[in-house]
Each structure stands twice: as C-alpha cells, then as structure tokens.
Amino acid sequence: MRRPTxxxxxxxxxxxxVVKPLSWLLVKKDWRHGGRIPRxxxxxxxxxxxxxxxxxxxxxxxxxxxxxxxxxxKSGLFRVPFLGRxxxxxxxxxxxxxSAEAVRSLRASAERLADGCAILFYPEGTxxxxxxLWPMVGKTGAARLALESGAQVIPVAHWGAQExxxxxxKKPRVFPRKxxxxxVGQPVDLSKYVGEPPHGDVLRAATADIMAAITxxxxxxxGEKAPExxxxxxxx
Length: 236
Known about the structure:
Strand content: 15-25%
Number of strands: 7
Radius of gyration: 17 Å
Strand order of the largest sheet: 1-7-6-2-5-3-4
Order of helices and strands: HEEHEHEHEHEHEH
C-alpha cells in the first residue's frame, strides 16, 4: 500500500501556521534557483548543515517550492511527549546516530523515496566543524541511497542560519534581522557510478561529487572561493 507523501491536513496546517510566520519574522529571504527542484517524484535534497535552525528554514524554502520535506531527526526527539508525536506525524524519519540502527533510517528513506517523497539529507551528518563553515567531507549514506534507489540528488546550499543561531547556542540572535540565503544546483550527475558495486571507493567518490556540488552553490552564495580540499574531522 502506498504511503502518504504529506502529513495529514491537521499536522501540515499546524506546522505551516507555526513555521512560516516565524520564519518570515526572523529572517529576510534571498532564495535562488528554486525552480530547479522537481515538483514530483522521489528526490534527495542534499544540503550543508550550519545550525540547528537551518532544518526549519530550509523546510520553509522547500515547502514554498512545492515539496514537503521529509527530515531525518534524532531518534531521541521521538520519545519527547507531544514533540515525538508531532515529528512522527510530520513524516520525519528517526536516526539513531553512531549505531547500527542507523541502517534502518536509510531503509525507511528508501521506502519514502519509492513513495515519491522528497528527503532532506545532510551528508555531513552534523553541523560543519570547518573553521570557515565550508562543507566537510560527507558521509556515504546519501550516495548509497541515491545509487540504490536511482533517485535524483539535488544539491542545496544555504548561508545565514548560523548567524541566527550559531552551532552550540540555544538562544537565537534575533537582532539585527538576518538574511537566509539559499541556492539550488542542477542534479548531481552520478551516472558514471551506475552498475558499480555501491560500496568502498565508489560510495566515497559519489559522496565527494555530491559535496562538491553543494560547495559550489555555497561559494556562489558567499561570493568566495571554496577551499580545494574539504575539511575532514577524522583526519584533522
């Protein structure tokens, strides 16, 4: 049986009523190339991660461009009273980080892609630790999901969420009002990996292509040249 690609009318309306006014109030918008996001079909939105606030701001962007974002969220959130019910009803997928259970989140993501959902995926796995806030070396989950499902990967970069809520801080810096910039790239070409076994060097190379596409969009937003080699927290 085909599962829904959007929440029930009640939960979708509740989320929109809360998120959209708050987003418009907190940040100004500089949104670019939103028309590059396909309106239908299973889709992986691969984005950089700067702040705990960017999933909400990106969700607003994606919703306004015709897609309900299915977010991968920490499994602990699903155990919080009311919040757990809310994130589950909004179609979020639980992720048990640092655990073999994380495989379940990829399986659930593959099922949602088959249903025609748009998955918001952070290949870095966490907020970047790069001192200049460029994207880090990515983890291979998004690449594996793309190669096994055949779903398109759309690279999306954003800038400004870290000014509203810097990583590690709990209190937003509301004033002066910040600008949230988003740029959408063309689908990442992973055709050269089709037919290759989806593991090891193949996954790492495909992941590097995805991260390079995100970084190129971020360089456009920032008007700066990105570093030639991405920051690698494991090999620093």
